[in-house]
Design a protein that fits this description.
Elements (H helix, E strand, L loop, with lengths): L13 H9 L5 H15 L13 E7 L8 E6 L5 H7 L23 H8 L5 E7 L2 E7 L6 H4 L2 E2 L3 H4 L2 E2 L3 H9 L11 H10 L2 E7 L11 H10 L1 H9 L1 E6 L2 E2 L21 E4 L3 E3 L5 E3 L10 E6 L16 E5 L4 E6 H4 L9 E6 L19 H28 L2 H18 L39 E3 L8 E4 L3 E3 L1 H4 L2 E3 L11 E5 L5 E4 L3 E4 L3 E9 L9 E6 L1 E7 L2 E5 L3 E3 L1 E6 L4 E2 L2 E2 L1 E4 L7 E3 L4 E4 L3 E9 L7 E2 L4 E6 L13 E4 L4 E2 L4 E2 L9 E2 L2 H6 L1 E4 L4 H9 L4 H28 L8 H29 L7
Parallel strand pairs: 1-8, 14-16, 18-25, 18-31, 27-37, 38-42
Antiparallel strand pairs: 1-2, 2-7, 3-4, 3-7, 4-5, 4-6, 8-9, 10-13, 11-12, 13-16, 14-15, 17-20, 19-23, 21-24, 22-23, 24-25, 26-29, 28-34, 29-30, 32-35, 33-34, 35-36, 35-37, 39-40, 41-42
Helix pairs in contact: 2-4, 2-9, 2-10, 13-17, 16-17, 17-18
Length: 784
């Protein structure tokens, strides 16, 4: 077979190609991380050969003024030469960094810094280099995202921007710094010293950066995001970066640095594991981590955090990752939850993989995450094993800290206090909707407004809100709390609810399904069995529910995109295909989303997505751990939570106080975890709809008093009781101002404070008259 090829070689659509190789830069922190990385590379021996004491750079921000656009720049002491700006001008040049040096140094570099200059600035973007009394200046100009803008050129013209002889490097630098309202003398002393000794500099800058409100740069937040970016990590370790905003030094004039993560007390030293030379991938094929001996062995380093990294989404969630690097570069990262999903204790671990064999085949231009492949699969399986082992140790020790027996006792105390508070609330619950409801979860729609529920005392049977003709299908590896699904109720002989009776769940075949923590089912193996509940301490059993555990082959989620208003719900449908080819949409799975803020949405076991906070996230569903055969949806649902123009209604009945780390969140069917960033008396929008409040044991105040419980239980009971009093006062305040409706007007704080003081006096005195004895003895409220 012969072929007559086109003359001129490969042809590419210029604008299409330019768009393709630059579109991965989407934010200024990503672009500036590329500038940081390029400065580090320029300082190395085979390039500018900058001495260690001179490895310094300055980040410059300037907001818009009536006479000048906003601008961002990075100043270093390398001094870009003509060769540098010429090689910078070539798009998609894999040798842009190495220049034939023979060093395996970022072989795919060539687009990052200039892609940022091309995409995220409306005005001119340039690289200005001064070295050996010669000036070179090249850059971009033209309409945003146009082909014209993507063709670099010498700024001014070729005469003024190419090898232009200059008399003074300092004169050129002062002129470059002037728009940033920074003088040479205001630069840090060590920067001035390096510039004077080297008599060279490079300034990379862009004018009119896009995406800032009224062209005013939130420099502190942007700097923090840059520091969190994995592409900045190596540069920050090797270069001292300073920053200025509108002429003023940031970080009190000190070099930028990541806030240190305080390690978990029991694991203060990172754990280092050598990566074996041969590892199995997901198909059990052996992969060489040394490329057959051509590269040295790598290592996995596990670090720990004293705080929950997942819930501390402002400081620690961006760093809750496993980062992959070779000898010379970061090649991306993955979330720890992607490596070990739903693993208790993993919230306190982050990691680094150092493996030279990943370069260059697993390096993608954006370096957000390593490219997929069998070697990476094998390394991830090894990392998952080590992370799980450490996570188990941490979780076991945390369980000792938050002892189950102590939490059981606090949960019992909380139920007593929760029932006690109802006598101090308006009759029939706030707003009079539905009376006391059913343990605070809302009104009983079958009961007439204003009537009160009668409770039983002697249990007779257990009822479920479940069709016993239906089979409970669940994916192998799924873990679920069953109470929100079956909604069991203990009733007496005449059908009255018997409150505060605990249930024990049982299974017919523990090799198919088992229970932990009283009501959490774990699907162990493929097959069919039955489950049922018993009233603890009695012989009363429920009817049996048929269970069918499926081995999942794949999961398809619809719709692909979802827009949900705050306080409203929309369902994501999960179509599940089993290993035998059966399909169904009623198979229970685990659900998760990847937003930095874990409370943007709440997802029920049946895929109902409740908007809680404005933002964006992506949602997935699946069964089991992917590292051990678990299957999750390959295509995630992109979800947006938008503002709700309608008033969000509160759930009926008396509000209920629940306990984080112990009680079930009705919107997710899972135990609500505490959050140290939230108040001790905590209520989200979704909780308001359910008329639920949470005693947040992860809050520093609550955690302090909980720790005192062992040695001083009176102190704990006083704190717990006061939170119940605070809850009653807030409910009264909300009830009064809701009742005013449209008649409520903006008023002086002093008048609101007077109302608050009135409720505090009335309720505090009445409640504490009865709480005194309880706090001192732990008894006296059961009869109320």
């Amino acid at each position: 077979m012969t072929i007559e090829r086109d003359l001129g070689g490969i042809r590419f659509h210029e604008l299409g190609t330019l768009t393709s190789v630059t579109k991965w830069i989407r934010s200024h922190d990503e672009g500036l991380a590329e500038w940081f990385k390029n400065a580090r590379r320029a300082y190395l021996l085979d390039r500018a050969n900058v001495a260690e004491e001179h490895r310094i750079a300055v980040l410059l921000f300037k907001d818009v003024t009536p006479d000048d656009p906003a601008r961002i720049a990075l100043l270093d002491v390398g001094g870009a030469k003509l060769e540098d700006v010429e090689r910078w001008s070539v798009w998609q040049d894999p040798g842009a960094s190495g220049r034939g040096s023979g060093l395996a140094e970022e072989e795919t570099q060539g687009n990052g810094g200039k892609a940022y200059m091309y995409r995220l600035f409306e005005g001119e973007a340039r690289i200005l280099g001064v070295k050996d009394k010669k000036l070179n200046c090249k850059g971009f100009n033209g309409p945003q995202n146009s082909l014209e803008r993507g063709i670099p050129g010498f700024i001014g013209d070729i005469v003024g921007g190419k090898q232009l002889p200059i008399q003074s490097w300092e004169h050129e630098l002062r002129g470059a710094l002037n728009p940033y309202d920074v003088s040479f003398e205001e630069l840090p002393n060590e920067v001035q010293k390096a510039l004077k000794e080297r008599e060279s500099f490079t300034l990379v800058e862009g004018l009119s950066p896009i995406g800032f409100y009224k062209d005013r740069i939130d420099a502190n937040e942007l700097v923090q995001r840059i520091l969190w970016h994995e592409q900045s990590t190596l540069a920050i370790q090797q270069i001292r970066f300073y920053a200025f905003h509108n002429g003023r030094e940031l970080n009190n004039g000190r070099p930028l640095e990541l806030e240190p993560i305080v390690p978990y007390a029991d694991f203060p030293i990172p754990l280092v594991h050598e990566i074996p030379e041969d590892l199995p991938d997901e198909k059990c094929n052996i992969q060489s981590t040394t490329l057959g001996g051509a590269r040295p062995k790598g290592r996995l380093i596990l670090y720990t955090s004293n705080e929950n990294m997942n819930t501390n989404y402002k400081r620690l969630k961006p760093r809750w990752k496993i980062t992959y690097r070779t000898q010379h570069q970061m090649i991306g990262s993955k979330s720890i939850t992607e490596i070990v999903p739903q693993t208790p204790g993993s919230y306190f671990i982050y990691a680094t993989v150092e493996l030279l064999a990943l370069e260059p085949d697993y390096v993608e231009p954006g370096r957000r995450r390593p490219l997929p492949g069998p070697l990476l699969e094998a390394v991830d399986l090894f990392a998952a094993e080590k992370i799980r082992a450490l996570a188990k140790e941490i979780n076991d020790r945390r369980r000792q800290d938050f002892d189950n027996n102590a939490l059981d006792e606090v949960q019992r105390e909380n139920r007593i206090l929760d029932n006690f508070k109802n006598q101090f609330l308006p009759t029939g619950g706030p707003g009079g909707e539905g009376g006391p409801g059913e343990e605070g979860v809302g009104p009983d729609k079958k009961r007439k407004k204003g009537t009160e529920r009668e409770y039983g005392e002697i249990p007779e049977s257990i009822e479920f809100e479940w069709d016993f003709e239906s089979t409970f299908r669940i994916g192998k590896g799924v873990k679920l709390c069953v109470d929100p699904i079956f909604r069991p109720r203990v009733i007496d002989s005449v059908g009255r609810l018997v409150p505060n009776k605990q249930l024990e769940w049982h299974t017919g075949d523990r090799h198919i399904a088992k229970f932990e923590d009283h009501n959490r089912i774990i699907a162990i193996g493929k097959g069919k069995t039955e489950i049922f509940a018993k009233v603890r301490g009695t012989s009363i059993e429920s009817r049996k529910i048929s269970v069918d555990v499926w081995v999942i082959d794949h999961v398809l989620l619809t719709p692909r995109t979802l827009e949900v208003a705050v306080g409203t719900r929309k369902q994501v449908l999960a179509e599940v295909t089993s290993d035998e080819g059966y399909r169904a949409t009623d198979v229970f799975l685990n659900w998760e989303h990847d937003a930095a803020d874990p409370l943007i949405v709440r997802i029920s076991p049946t895929g109902w997505v409740l908007g809680n906070r404005i933002g964006r996230t992506s949602i997935s569903a699946g069964a089991g751990d992917p590292a051990f055969g678990g299957v999750w949806a390959r295509i995630r649902v992109e979800a947006s939570v938008i503002a709700n123009p309608k008033e969000i209604e509160r759930g009926g009945g008396f509000p209920q106080l629940r306990l984080t780390g112990r009680d079930i969140d009705p919107d997710t069917g899972e135990v609500r975890q505490g959050d140290p960033e939230q108040p001790s008396l905590w209520q989200e929008i979704t909780d308001y709809q359910n008329n639920i409040w949470w005693l947040n044991l992860e809050n520093p105040e609550a955690a302090f008093y909980f720790r005192q419980r062992i040695d001083n239980v009176i102190m704990w009971r006083a704190f717990h009781s006061q939170k119940v009093v605070d809850m009653v006062i807030q409910v009264h305040m909300k009830n009064e101002y809701d009742a005013k409706g449209d008649a409520e007007r903006p008023d002086l704080w002093s008048r609101h404070k007077q109302t608050l003081d009135t409720y505090e006096v009335l309720n505090t005195q009445a409640m504490w008259n009865k709480l005194h004895n309880y706090v001192l003895t732990g008894a006296g409220l059961e009869q109320n």
